[in-house]
TrEMBL record:
Its EC number is 2.7.4.9. Keywords: ATP-binding, Kinase, Nucleotide biosynthesis, Nucleotide-binding, Transferase. GO terms for biological process: dTDP biosynthetic process; dTTP biosynthetic process; dUDP biosynthetic process. ATP binds at residues 10-17. This is Thymidylate kinase. It comes from the Bacteria. Belongs to the thymidylate kinase family. It catalyses: dTMP + ATP = dTDP + ADP. Phosphorylation of dTMP to form dTDP in both de novo and salvage pathways of dTTP synthesis. GO terms for molecular function: ATP binding; dTMP kinase activity. Residues 8-188 form the Thymidylate kinase-like domain. InterPro entries: P-loop_NTPase (IPR027417), Thymidylate_kin-like_dom (IPR039430), Thymidylate_kinase (IPR018094). The lineage of its organism: Bacteria, Bacteria division WOR-3.
Amino acid sequence: MKKLFIVFEGIDGSGKSTQAKMLFSLLKEKYKDAVFFKFPTHQSTEFGKIIDEYLSGKMGSLSEVPPEIPSLLYALDRYQFKKELESANCIVCDRYWQSNLAHQAAKLRGRARKEFIDWLICLDKRLPVPTHVFLLDIPVELAYQRIAREKKLDIHESDRAYMENVRAVYLMLAKRYKWHVINALDGKREKSVEEIASEILKVLNLG
């Protein structure tokens, strides 16, 4: 059976976690060795705990911490699961190295951003490459309406201008690397969870 490695990306509040879990529930019936990953791993691993320190602002603000530092932490968080990512025949990831590209490159401009993206791709080149990357695109204002009801904001989420930059970088990367962009809106109407799931299944020829 051909390997299936699906990654869900998007700014916080885009609905990627919901879609990733829904798809995994469907695929694990077909692929008995299907695995699900959510990156970063937060409090479940040592690297995840360090990342939480960064996200809480204890290492400094967005402008104080060079993007290379969190990028290395996030890379280490993924590399600890390299064997599992290589051996599984079906993988669904709620974020992968594409998140690093968008969130950290959003802190830079011009040539510095391009050079950083090249460096970061090189950093993660020994990890398995996804077969499909879905970018769930949503206006930042709508995303904030969603996440404000659910949790305390981290240093990324609390800076709206930064999140606008992240969204813009995500869309630029999606165009460059031919990711599948799923829009959260149909005109001004917010799509339902089921509508978005249906679009994803059609791309995967499962709908």
